[in-house]
Amino acid sequence: MEPAFWDSSALVPLCTEQMGTPLLRQLSERFGVVVWWATRVEGRSAFARELRAGALTTMQHQQVVGRLEELQQGWREIQPTEDLRRLAESMLERYHLRAADALQLAAAYTWCKSRPFNRHFISGDRRLLDAARETGFRIVDTAGAH
Predict the structure, then answer these.
(1) Rounded Cα distance, 136 and 114, in Å
(2) What distance in Å separates the CA atoms of residue 129 and residue 116, rounded to the nearest whole number?
(3) CA pair distance 58, 31, nearest whole angstrom
(4) Domain range spanning residue 134?
(5) Using CA atoms, how far apart are residues 1 and 103, in angstroms rounded to an integer?
């Protein structure tokens, strides 16, 4: 299975029953999952917001957290380093990104050893996708899928 970098915005719907889940499940069968170190925290944050908003019951919340933990068993996680932080800081000045998105992109760039060409970047965040494309990644846009 070919690896791809997955942003949290593409992984969270894999754990829920959102409209885009079938497309994202197809992508998960095609691409291995590479993520940033904080992806699990970002996913749990999204699920907690849904629980507080009443969009998830306590039981559903437990189920989606369990699905995220199952996904984690098979993913590769890019760890934080000083070089990655410096790279993310420089990306903030080059691209229109927020801090977390710059860390995601820097993690992806680190994963591919600074050679993003022919590497896939999967996300539902258009701004992050634009920066990933400019960096040289082949993007997979899931924004319309969920």
Answers:
(1) 10
(2) 13
(3) 31
(4) 2-145
(5) 25
CATH number for position 14: 3.40.50.1010
Considering the entire predicted model, what is its pTM? Answer: 0.92
Q: Is 36 left (phi over 0), alpha (psi -120 to 50) or beta?
A: beta
Residue 45 has pLDDT above 90, yes or no: yes
SS3 27: helix
d(CA 109, CA 38): 16
Number of independent structural domains in the chain:
1
Pairing of strands 76-78, 2-6: unpaired
C-alpha to C-alpha distance for 35 and 41, rounded to whole angstroms: 12
Model pLDDT for residues 50-105, shown as the tens digit of each residue: 999 999 999 999 999 999 999 999 999 999 999 999 999 999 999 999 999 999 99
Helix (H) or strand (E) run with residue 69 in it: helix 58-74
